[in-house]
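Running this now, will post back.
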Amino acid sequence: MSVEVKICGLSTLKTLDAALDAGADYVGFVFFEKSPRNVEIDRATTLVAHAKGSATTVALVVDPDWPRLDEIMGKVAPDALQFHGSESPDFLRQVHARYPDTEIWKALPIASQDDLGQLALYLSLTDRILFDAKPPKGADRPGGHGRSFDWSLLRDLDPELGFMLSGGLDPDNVADAIRMTHAMAVDVSSGVESAPGVKDTDKIRAFIAAARAVRRERAL
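Update: finished.
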């Protein structure tokens, strides 16, 4: 089975087209004001409409309230909602009931084996679990901030869970990450940027090509 690729934090048509042309399976848009990748609703609406039919569109949110979610779903209408904060299992049940036709993703921050205990709480409530590095101490936003975690922690997980690997990935290390974790999907944001929030089209293409090369190796 091929490795799926998500390019996250897109904010321009040029970089979105680079991701789509290179074969990205998922394209992500960040709705979190503290992030350098935050995208306004109107721009996101245009970008998501442009990507529809070419890739699965994903809205990344962090502990959103209902008015914010309703605005995103009503105007942007992404295919999936990726929750990247401290959202509880009960909250995700409510999200599923409110938007039954939308995929629900949950990012879990990982630093040690103990952190994998969260998986049992969320697996049955989500369409996709995404493993990311824990943020640095004192950080004001979630995510790995371009850092990876110990990938060997995932070595014994069943790849059929379909988890997505994130955190510190880039064109140079994504192949090793896939080989070590047997991840069936990978997600990148800062690893394909020239500056925080500024996507690099060459790095986007290189990242997707590197992930696809592992797929070709598996097929041999």
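The mean pLDDT is 92. More later if anyone needs it.
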